[in-house]
């Protein structure tokens, strides 16, 4: 079975902390150069730049999935990734209606801009995106799974904005498709806090700058790059239970 290199956690110009060099065009070109086959754009609480990245991906032989890094009311980050862009945009609408109406301060947090395929700024988002929504983790996971999305708690080994830093553990019973670990050397430290023991492990770049795209990646086996292939391949990855070697 062919193996494809995936980086499903990349921020763009729409994230305040994302560099302005992270236009959809630059991301796709850099992903291609870094040898990635499948990527997802996952901006904080927004999915709009995925529209443009997906079109560019088609022209460049990179499958671009529409995603978001959602911040729940518990102040933890979840990656939501979809097979169709409409579902991601529906999530954006739902999340936006649950996002506090606090204005962004671009000088402090950074710009939040929607950029098209030709690097033209379409609009600037005025509301601060790096903020907790009113959605609980349970509400968010339920919504995403009901629409056929993938849910992956972000950087569970991080000391901020992670499910472990905020809840104290990874609870069993929530239908997570995988858990994202930033530093594999922290696996043994984090393992006791994970109750969802059969959940697969992945690692992605969480890139905010072009140079970081693909710096961490997960190799997935599938016939050809597709959303359905990603869903199935995630289910075959080593879980946190066994401590089996990491797949890349
Ligand atoms: Zn995060
Ligand atoms: Zn992130």
Short description:
By secondary structure, this protein is of the alpha/beta class. About 25% of the residues lie in helices and about 20% in strands. It has helices at about 25-35, 50-60, 85-95, 105-110, 135-145, 165, 185-190, 225-235, and strands at about 5-10, 40, 65-70, 75-80, 115, 120-125, 150-155, 180, 200, 220.
Shape: globular
Low-confidence stretches: 243-248
- In total, the number of domains comes to 1
Structure classification: alpha/beta
Q: Do you know the CATH topology?
A: TIM Barrel
Task: Please characterize this protein's 3D structure.
A hairpin with a 5-residue loop joins strand 5 (113-115) and strand 6. The chain has one domain (3-234): Metal-dependent hydrolases (TIM Barrel), CATH 3.20.20.140. It is 26% helix and 19% strand. Mean pLDDT is 94; it is low at 243-248. The strands form three sheets. Strands 7-4-3-2-1-10 form a six-stranded mixed beta sheet, with helices on both faces. It is α/β, with parallel strands linked by helices and 248 residues long. The chain has helices at residues 24-33, 50-60, 85-96, 106-109, 137-146, 163-167, 187-190, 227-234; strands spanning 3-10, 38-41, 63-71, 77-82, 113-115, 121-124, 150-153, 179-180, 201-202, 218-221. It is globular and about 45 Å long. It binds zinc ion (2 copies).
